[in-house]
Amino acid sequence: MANSLTDVFGAAAAVAKGMSVTLREMMSPTVTENYPDEPPKFQERFRGAHVLQRDENGLEKCVACFLCAAACPSNCIYIEAAENTELVRISGGERFAKTYNIDYNRCIFCGYCVEACPTDAITHGHGFEIASYNTSTLIYRKEDMLAAVPAGAKPPVVHEPAEAGAH
Amino acid sequence: MADPVTMTINGREIQAAPGTLVIEAARKNGIEIPSFCYYEGYSLQAACRMCLVEVEKAPKLMVACTLPVAPGMVVHTESQKVKDARKYTLEFLLTNHPLDCPVCDKGGECELQDMVFRYGAGESRFTEEKLHVQEQQWSPVVFYDGPRCILCFRCVRACNEGMGVGALGVVNRGSVSLIAPNHGDHLECDECGQCIDICPVGALTSGTYRYQTRPWEMEHTGTICTHCSNGCKTTLGVRNDKIIRGNNRDRSGINGEFLCVKGRYAFDFYDHPERLQSPMIRVNGKLEPVSWSKALKHVAEKFSEIKARNGKFGVIGSNHTTNEENFYLQKFVRQGLGSNNIDHKRTGDVVTLIDALSGTTGTLATTADLYEGKTFLILGADLAIEQPFLSFQIRASMRHHAAKVFVVTSKEVREDAYAKKSIRKAAGSEIEALEELREALAAESDLVIVFGSSVKGEAVRKLVAFGESLGKPVKYCALVDYSNSRGAVDMGLMAELHPGYHPSETPGMTLPEMLADETLDALWVINENPLEAAGLASDKAFVVVQDLFLTETAQRADVVLPSASAYEKNGTVTNVCGEIQRLQKAVTVMGTKPDLEIIGLIAKEMGLAPAMGPWVSETVYGEIRRSVKGYDIALPLVAMAAQQTAPVNGRVNVADKSALIQGAHETLFTSGTLGRYSKVLNSVIEKRAGMSLAAQEESHV
Ligand code: SF4
Ligand code: SF4
Ligand code: SF4
Ligand code: SF4
Ligand code: SF4
Ligand code: FES
């Protein structure tokens, strides 16, 4: 008899202990992300899709030095450089990236490009929703990665795309 | 030679010839002493102090670039004192240097970057504001960014000593010194770009390469310049199937680093918007684009038909196509079409020279002889303008071997400024001046004679007789105009000569005869523009033209076949001195085919392919080796370095056709059809007249 009584109390204590965890967790803030119903949260240094930054005047920071492309272990950055002129000024330096593509089929988000950049033009954003059914859409162009012109800055002259075809 | 001097560098005993500079002695023994202003081949400057070394018993660090070796000298190049000195020198150089490497075109191949990386301090102690000077454009191809200049004066010396132009100088003193061009705000010079290449930093940059790419982003293809006959090796930087720059920084090839404006910049004709990219057939009097198969079939049908009725062919070969193409063409014309009417635009009397020299060996000069020689006689050629590299070689020989130069020309030439004697004689009568020079020439130990197109026929024989009468080793070079003019002669693109200078038993029609013949049935022109200056007498002739552009000749054509330029194919070419070199394909231009393939495909359409053999350049070269005398040189050897071909050593028994020879006198800024379509050559402002003298006067360095 005495044994069954201990069993009852023992079970009740175990339940109470378990429920206390439940109750405590019910009161504390949730850690589960409600993605995709709510936007996910990121650690500040998460390495997501790249952003090409602009300076405070709205000019592109990238001067097409090709160092990111040289640093990239998966060889996925493609750049074509061109010179700024009096009429068309795209970047702060003498030259700018006429074309700047990152091939996200190959990018491994290692951050070497960001580290190599002498002008802090390329940074990792927090973008991660880049999955696609079509690999060709994974080649991001400069326009896909450029940061917005900061408020109050005079927007830079829009660069006319180069004519297609080399010859 | 005097006994070598024994000395010690970094504890290693080395030997060097007396008079050798310590920096050179060290480098020869694999010990690197950094330098900016010291540059092999040019005068000493001792301006940069980068080469300081410690010499035992000397109170201070010594400048290795001006210090000759001495017996028992003990040198240290890696001691702490030396390392510190390098660090401080670099710190000084960087005090006003913008360090804008990310946008600087030199980044990645900059000597200052490399030195700072290796020997420099990690950070700068200089916090004062830097002096800024605006970047200047001196010409379409030369830009100068003052703040980046480290005042090593390499450019000044390269232009003055190397080019004999002297367009660059220094203005101001001390920290505000700058390099300045000869005409205040712009350059009037050769536009060769040597100064840009030799600049250790990004102070001088190239107008066409500017801000295009990075050196490591390009593929580098070593090939041969397709303009003049000097045959400089040019290394083309290619990205995305586009040629971006030409230079020869690795100093390979006969020309070392030398390139004139054409070799360095004038590759740009290749992607001119008017480049032909589709075959065309004349339909109702108008040229209409058609497919390759249709065009080739049409040509083959017409050729077969004309051949069947024993019609008259006329074939004009090119001064620019490869030896393989020339050989294959003449074989196809002679054996396939059964005609001897084949010729090219003759630009120099190589034939008479070879005949006159029969029985001698080693009498044809190489480009190296134009540097090794101690005495030069230039007849009837404005060398600096028409044969830029040969002229560069002679200037180098003057600096290094105190060579003497004698000039006989009809007008003033750059060589006058440093010639021992210059004589003015009307073109064609240059050899009348020989006796006047006999005494001076006889006093020298050797002689190299170069002569232009106005010395031809009998004059060449007289010239050789004169050379022989001097009783000393004399070498000759008959100047020709274009990249493979010499090869065209060697490969028998001549009515009277088969390949290897074999006289033809039934000589055919020469170029002017073809154009003047009213009964000509077909005219086939390969990369040449004979109708620019002359008319075609035969109205009924079926005209086939292979070319890059719609030239005057192509406009008259019934079929136009777009061909590939020298930069778009493999093969070999022979330069003015008979040196054979290898072309390497750098890019592809859509729609075009190499001339060799076009000729082969016409042969195939005519059912003659088995007789002609494959139109693969290596195979054709094999045939050239077997059948053209003097060309038995293995291709791998040619790929490694230029090899001089030794043509027949015997009489060339043909009638004197030297009257047909006409020099084109292309300048630094013209190059036949190719020059017409080069953006760079058409953008420079230089007026040639008297330029060399004026420029010399202006340079005060
Ligand atoms: S993150 Fe790494 S792989 Fe991706 S582009 Fe940058 S360097 Fe290349
Ligand atoms: S010259 Fe050399 S060190 Fe100077 S900015 Fe250009 S790359 Fe950098
Ligand atoms: S000739 Fe003109 S381009 Fe050539 S080195 Fe002199 S200044 Fe430079
Ligand atoms: S421009 Fe270049 S080559 Fe000329 S002095 Fe300056 S650093 Fe030297
Ligand atoms: S000298 Fe002649 S071969 Fe040499 S780069 Fe100039 S044009 Fe070309
Ligand atoms: S290399 Fe000797 S002082 Fe410049």
3D structure, described in words:
The complex is a heterodimer of chains A (167) and B (701). Chain A has 167 residues and is of the alpha+beta class. Chain A has helices at residues 2-27, 67-71, 112-116, 142-145; strands spanning 49-52, 77-83, 95-103, 122-127, 139-140. In chain A, the strands form two sheets. In chain A, strands 2-3-5 form a three-stranded antiparallel sheet. The relative contact order of chain A is 0.20. Chain B is α/β, with parallel strands linked by helices. Among the domains of chain B are: 5-93, Roll (Ubiquitin-like (UB roll)), CATH 3.10.20.740; 111-271, 2-Layer Sandwich (Alpha-Beta Plaits), CATH 3.30.70; 350-479, Dimethylsulfoxide Reductase, domain 2. Chain B is 28% helix and 18% strand. Chain B has a seven-stranded mixed sheet with strand order 15-14-27-26-25-16-17. A five-stranded mixed sheet of chain B has the order 2-1-5-3-4, covered by helices on one side. In chain B, α7 crosses α18 and α8 crosses α20. The longest helix of chain B has 17 residues, at 292-308. In chain B, 53% of the residues are buried. Chains A and B meet through α2 and β2 of A and loops of B. One iron/sulfur cluster is lined by residues 225, 227-228, 230-232, 259-260, 262-263, 388-389 of chain B.
